[in-house]
Amino acid sequence: MSYSLCSDILESKNKVQTQSIGIQCDLDPDHFYYEARCSTPIQKPQKVEEQKREEEGGGEEDGGFDEPTKQKEVDKQKTTKIATVDLHWFKQDCNQIIVTELAIIDQFNNYIVFHFKSPFAKTELSAKLYNDVTWLERYYKKMTSLKNKYPELSVTLAIGGWNEGSASYSAMAANPTKRKLFVESVVIMLSKHGFDGLDLDWEYPAKRGGSPEDKANFVSLIKDLRAEMDKKGWILTAAIGAGKDTIERAYDLPQISTYLDYIHLMTYDYHGSWDQKVGANAPLSTAEPNDELTVEYSINYLLSNGVAPEKLVMGIPAYGRTFILKNPESKEAKLGDSTQETGFGGPYTKEKGFMGYNEICAELAKDSTWQEWWDNTTKTQFARNGEKVISFDNEISIGEKVKFAMRNKLAGMMVWSVDTDDFRGECHQQEPFTILRVIEKSMATSLQEIEKHKKPNAAVQSISVSLALLFCMLHVLLYCNH
């Protein structure tokens, strides 16, 4: 299985073009780069009605279908994959832009999510999906036309994101008329451009300009969308926050689990320079019994409160959080050390407090004065050079998270994001995409362990679990700042 699928960028005065798929975009004054998520979904999702029939006894105990249908589903899982890539806009050196060739979906494809920042028209009727994006239409066609080459591929459109905020969504979801108009415009947009579903990235209901009623209204919005998605056979997913406070305020977990095909849990950014102390970006676990800011806690909380494991996708960050120590004279840095309010940035992403995995491993490789240490409690790697500290996931921590996800029979993992993986294979002088490869290898190892311990009379049931977690999903989103 080859991952060496990055393409070079051809620069001209005002635009760049990928050699592989010919996507063009005006870059004055902004530039773009691709990002992605990676996960392991079980199979193409069933409609809610089909799931209800099975739960009500519409078939065999092991899954609700007869033997011939069961075998077809098992065969189907062998070829079902998911792919995603994000297109973000940043002011940065065009020479360092990363464009991941979409041919990578040949290895990980099931669906692509094309994500743009602002879904709302700048009018008094803010519930109407913003369709005045003619410059994007040719890119929509580029993406959806991939289905001609990859018949099993589904391409879905995602809307929202951190920069979009919550106020517009809150106003729309609270009003049945506006909600209806929004859903109708979503259907028009998806149909017009040949998309196969929607990924909703409202960050977050009841927060950041939202209202307490958003929790119930979010369910109403998803329910309305679900009704239209089912008519078309489309996919409906959502990205949700991982903090307990956000989860409790924003989401009716049993309800959203019922109506969504997959839930993408953003299990990262638990700690950063905003805490003004050294912390783990995405700690798997903790020694503190009441610590709610860990991946384990977030996953277990969702599973204990109505989310089906086969719908839950766990996030893995391909980046680290950075810190600047207040006391750089200390001989050793440790968790909890006081830091300044902002961290330092990487040479390409240039965001204070953030470094991509590719930037981190390149920095550690070129400068031997960095000192690394492993925190076994949080399953996190750290590095320090003078006043600078980095918290990040390495091969070991990612492997631990993959095993955790598989033990809990989750739908899979997502990587945020592939553009900050070691996409050229330069850090360790090996094949590209270190993190994706670690995930793949860890899944294979975990599957072997499952095979060793499975019960002889559970062979049929274990096949679906094993095949479900065998493939990696990339997730394609497009954000554009105007």
TrEMBL record:
Instruction: Mark the transmembrane ranges.
Output: 458-480
In this chain, the stretch annotated as Disordered covers 44-77
A Pfam family this chain is assigned to: Glyco_hydro_18
Record carries keyword Cytoplasm: no
Provide one Gene Ontology cellular component: extracellular region
Which UniProt keywords are given for this protein, alphabetically ordered? Disulfide bond, Glycosidase, Hydrolase, Membrane, Transmembrane, Transmembrane helix
UniProt record similarity statement: Belongs to the glycosyl hydrolase 18 family.
Question: Know the name of this protein?
Answer: Isolate 8 chitinase mRNA
**Species the sequence originates in:** Nilaparvata lugens (Brown planthopper)
